[in-house]
């Protein structure tokens, strides 16, 4: 199998697993994505291997969480 195809398959599997996990766990109490007077409907997900953060919900998948400069937010503790 071509290495790029392997990478795409692995990313798809990780994305699907994160979505399933967010559906099973449900929306946690307020997090950084929520406004002061309600819930955003988004789950804040962190990749355990990289420390990078993603926003997601059960209906439309996940997207990288970006800072004001457009850089993905990643915790320095990740690999």
Short description:
This protein has 79 residues and is of the alpha+beta class. It contains one helix and three strands.
Helix-strand blueprint:
Blueprint: H1 3-25, E1 43-46, E2 53-57, E3 61-64
Antiparallel strand pairs: 1-2, 2-3
Supply the number of helical segments.
1
Order of helices and strands: HEEE
In the sheet with the most strands, the strands line up as: 1-2-3
CA radius of gyration: 14 Å
Largest sheet: 3 strands, antiparallel
Please count the beta strands (DSSP E, at least 2 residues each): 3
Summed up, the domain count is 1
Question: What's the end-to-end separation, in Å?
Answer: 26 Å
Classify the beta-strand content into a percent band: 15-25%
Proportion of residues in helical segments: 25-40%
* Broad structural category: alpha+beta
Low-confidence stretches: none
| Mean pLDDT rating | 80
Shape: globular
């Amino acid at each position: 199998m071509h290495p790029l195809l392997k990478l795409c398959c692995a990313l798809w599997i990780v994305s699907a697993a994160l979505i399933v996990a967010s559906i099973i766990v449900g929306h946690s109490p307020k997090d950084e994505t929520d406004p002061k007077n309600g819930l955003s409907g988004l789950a804040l997900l962190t990749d355990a291997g990289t420390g990078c953060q993603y926003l997601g919900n059960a209906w439309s998948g996940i997207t990288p969480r970006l800072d004001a400069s457009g850089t993905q937010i990643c915790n320095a503790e990740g690999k």
